[in-house]
């Protein structure tokens, strides 16, 4: 059954972005913009995973998490701008399954949600992403190209890996530079030429690993990752 993700986040723009990316990866979604509504929806919908902000109206995230743990063991990913070690420890000690600090990449959040579900229920799909000879492990941040019996590792930067993973989830789809920047460079004021530079370096690395024509530019639109 398709997993249901409950997003409890009072910033509408962030909730909408997460919703869009989760749906794209095959999730059903529900949203709440304050802690009390989040608890009400949890009781009525019985979601498979909760994405929970900390700074929420009515009942804050810590209160929501405590109540969720009193009710049962629904997996919870905490999302917050608080990045001190004490905050992370509080989240984990209160029963959170994982913790991500804002600003974050929506791609990373979805990957963390999938990892949580793999650990807790086995509902998420195989973690490896494969496009022809290309194989990507989102949890280990490892990308390889298999040619016959030979395995070539692609030495990417974090941004290059995010771009490659993002595109590999939807091979043959053309992504605009803006889409790639929003998804993979969330903390940067990225210009088109910044995306072009990352793509150019990634294309060279893929070529060196044996996938010469994997990344293709589409004039006036953006880029796509080819699949045979």
Structural account:
With about 230 residues, this protein is an alpha/beta fold. It folds into 2 domains: about 5-120, Rossmann fold, CATH 3.40.50.2300; about 130-225, Arc Repressor Mutant, subunit A. Helices cover about 45% and strands about 20% of the residues. It contains 8 helices and 12 strands. It has helices at about 10-25, 35-45, 60-70, 85-95, 105-120, 160-170, 175-185, 190-210, and strands at about 5-10, 30, 50-55, 75-80, 100, 130, 135, 140-145, 150-155, 175, 215-220, 220-225. A hairpin with a 4-residue loop joins β7 (about 135) and β8. α2 (about 35-45) runs parallel beside α3 and α6 crosses α8. It is elongated, with a radius of gyration of 19 Å. The model has no long low-confidence stretch (mean pLDDT about 85).
What are the defining features of this structure?
Arc Repressor Mutant, subunit A, 4-stranded antiparallel β-sheet, 2 domains, alpha/beta, Rossmann fold, 228 residues
Brief rundown of the structure:
The chain is of the alpha/beta class and 228 residues long.
């Amino acid at each position: 059954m398709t997993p249901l993700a409950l997003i409890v986040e009072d910033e509408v723009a962030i909730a909408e972005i997460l919703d869009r990316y989760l749906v794209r990866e095959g999730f059903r979604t529900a949203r709440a913009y304050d802690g009390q509504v989040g608890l009400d929806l949890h009781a009525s919908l019985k979601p498979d995973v909760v994405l929970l902000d900390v700074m929420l109206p009515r009942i804050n995230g810590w209160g929501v998490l405590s109540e969720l743990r009193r009710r049962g063991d629904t997996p919870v990913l905490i999302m917050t701008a608080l990045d001190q070690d004490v905050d992370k420890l509080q989240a984990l000690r209160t029963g959170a399954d994982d913790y991500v600090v804002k600003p974050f990449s929506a791609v990373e959040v979805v990957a963390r949600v999938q990892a949580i579900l793999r650990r807790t229920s086995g509902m998420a799909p195989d973690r490896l992403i494969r496009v022809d000879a290309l194989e990507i492990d989102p949890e280990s941040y490892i990308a390889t190209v298999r040619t016959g019996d030979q395995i070539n590792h692609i030495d990417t930067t974090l941004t290059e890996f995010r771009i490659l993973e993002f595109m590999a989830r939807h091979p043959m789809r053309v992504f605009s530079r803006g889409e790639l920047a929003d998804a993979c460079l969330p903390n940067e004021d990225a210009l088109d030429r910044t995306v072009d530079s990352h793509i150019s370096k990634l294309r060279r690395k893929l070529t060196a690993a044996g996938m010469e024509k994997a990344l293709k530019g589409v004039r006036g639109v953006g880029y796509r990752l080819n699949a045979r």
